[in-house]
Design a protein that fits this description.
The chain has 209 residues and is of the alpha/beta class. It folds into two domains: 1-74 and 147-209, P-loop containing nucleotide triphosphate hydrolases (Rossmann fold); 85-145. The chain is built from six helices and ten strands. It has a six-stranded mixed β-sheet with strand order 6-7-8-3-9-10, with helices on both faces. A four-stranded antiparallel β-sheet has the order 2-1-4-5, covered by helices on one side. It binds adenosine-5'-triphosphate. Adenosine-5'-triphosphate binds at residues 11, 34, 36-42. This is Thiamine import ATP-binding protein ThiQ. One of its GO terms (molecular function) is ATP binding.
Length: 209
């Protein structure tokens, strides 16, 4: 289980710090909603290690992630868009998630098949649709094989049919691979469709419900 415990953070000059407390279970999607500017991206940046908290813990199965640099954290981050290098093939983009010089071919093909893109590995990322690009990014998340997956408005740039299919894929992958998926979204329909647990961020604090 991922537990955010007494995590405090303030930007320079901020009088009242954020104070985050939350839990996320493996195999489940935990949603974070809140008004624009409420601090949702700040929370994701703390989880990813791009910001350092004033105090508190980010506990994953008994291990505190706070001292770890971003690249050492068991975390993947997927944004609304711009997750891929457009000039590289889908397969090369997926292979970027592999450590070192691991033998990539089969792993990459298997991951692309799992996200519904079998046989499309040689296609240049620039030629893919928005939904296909998000699937490639999810395939890279698969080969990275990190248990905490942070999604920052990942469906917002997609049309209705594509967003419904993509969010179902996220749910399927989360359950199949035991990801602790944390979904930041403004869209209640996405949250209602796939999240098991919800938090609302307001006035610097998370409230469950
Ligand atoms: N580097 C920074 N320095 C100072 N203040 C910042 C910095 N980054 C963000 N903020 C402020 O912190 C607050 C929270 O920003 P954050 O981006 O986390 O909100 P958000 O909920 O993700 O917003 P949105 O939904 O619009 O993306 C905002 O008031 C923002 O202006």
């Amino acid at each position: 289980m991922l537990r955010v415990e007494d995590l405090a953070f303030a930007y320079p000059g901020q009088v009242t710090p954020y104070h985050f407390e939350m839990e996320a279970l493996p195999g489940e999607i935990t949603a974070i909603s809140g008004a624009s500017g409420s601090g949702k991206s700040t929370l994701l940046d703390l989880l990813a290690g791009f910001l350092a908290p004033l105090s508190g813990r980010i506990d994953l199965d008994g291990r505190d992630l706070v001292p770890l640099a971003p690249e050492s954290r068991p975390v993947s981050l997927l944004l609304q868009s711009d997750n891929l290098f457009d000039h590289l093939s889908a397969a090369r983009n997926v292979a970027l998630g592999l450590p070192g010089k691991a033998p990539a071919g089969q792993t990459v093909e298997t991951a692309l098949a799992e996200v519904g893109l079998a046989g499309m590995g040689q296609q240049t990322a620039a030629t893919l649709s928005g939904g296909q690009k998000q699937r490639v990014a999810l395939a890279r998340t698969l080969v990275r094989n990190r248990p905490v997956v942070l999604l920052d408005e990942p469906f917002s740039a997609l049309d209705d049919a594509t967003r419904a299919a993509t969010r179902e894929l996220v749910k399927t992958l989360t359950m199949a691979h035991g990801w602790h998926t944390i979904l930041v979204s403004h869209h209640m329909d996405d949250i209602e469709a796939i999240a098991s647990r919800r938090y609302l961020l307001d006035e610097g604090r998370l409230a469950e419900g």
